[in-house]
């Protein structure tokens, strides 16, 4: 599951060659991951525990935005959200629904973030 953004790797490399700080690239991806986490939290079943809802979070990598759910104390996050094929537990529609929303939103957020980075670094 996930959203693929064409040209992501090339854009990241071009910014790095232009001398853009990696932390700035992480900020752009972090914005996508944060919004993805907010969207996913909205789709978590109402019967799910509050701990599961609160464990949803995004990362800040330079080349991808990942949303994760669950921690050591939230034991059933994997089966509830991602499914568990070995035990015939089907995944919830949470990821599919989140991907459907983020498919259009992620490129918009990246474009905004990259434009800000380019302006700050005198590339526009």
Number of strands: 2
Count up the helices.
5
Radius of gyration: 16 Å
| Strand order in space, largest sheet | 1-2
User: Beta-strand percentage?
Assistant: under 5%
Low-confidence stretches: none
Largest sheet: 2 strands, antiparallel
* Helix/strand/pairing category: mainly alpha
Please report the distance between the alpha carbons of the first and last residues: 34 Å
The overall number of domains is 1
What is the 3D form?
A: elongated
Please bin the fraction of helical residues: 55-70%
Name the helix and strand elements from N-terminus to C-terminus, one letter apiece.
HHHEEHH
**Average pLDDT for all residues:** 82
Structure in words:
There is one protein chain. The protein has 124 residues and is mostly helical. It has one domain. The protein is built from five helices and two strands; from the N terminus they run αααββαα. The protein has helices at 8-17, 22-43, 50-55, 77-82, 94-120, and strands at 57-58, 67-68. A two-stranded antiparallel sheet has the order 1-2. A hairpin with an 8-residue loop joins β1 (57-58) and β2 (67-68). It starts with 7 loop residues before the first helix and ends with a helix. 21% of the residues are buried.
Please summarize what this structure is.
The chain has helices at residues 8-17, 22-43, 50-55, 77-82, 94-120; strands at residues 57-58, 67-68.
Task: Give the SSE layout.
Layout: H1 8-17, H2 22-43, H3 50-55, E1 57-58, E2 67-68, H4 77-82, H5 94-120
Antiparallel strand pairs: 1-2
Name its key features.
single chain; 124 residues; mainly alpha; two-stranded antiparallel sheet
């Amino acid at each position: 599951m996930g959203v693929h953004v064409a040209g992501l790797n090339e854009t990241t490399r071009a910014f790095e060659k232009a001398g853009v700080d990696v932390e700035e690239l992480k900020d752009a991806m972090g914005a996508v991951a944060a919004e993805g986490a907010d969207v996913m939290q909205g789709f978590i079943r109402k019967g799910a525990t509050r701990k599961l809802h609160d464990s949803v979070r995004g990362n800040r990598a330079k080349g991808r935005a990942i949303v994760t759910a669950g921690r050591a104390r939230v034991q059933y996050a994997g089966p509830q959200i991602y499914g568990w094929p070995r035990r015939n537990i089907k995944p919830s529609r949470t990821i599919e629904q989140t991907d459907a929303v983020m498919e259009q939103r992620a490129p918009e957020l990246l474009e905004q973030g990259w434009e800000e980075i380019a302006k700050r670094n005198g590339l526009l």
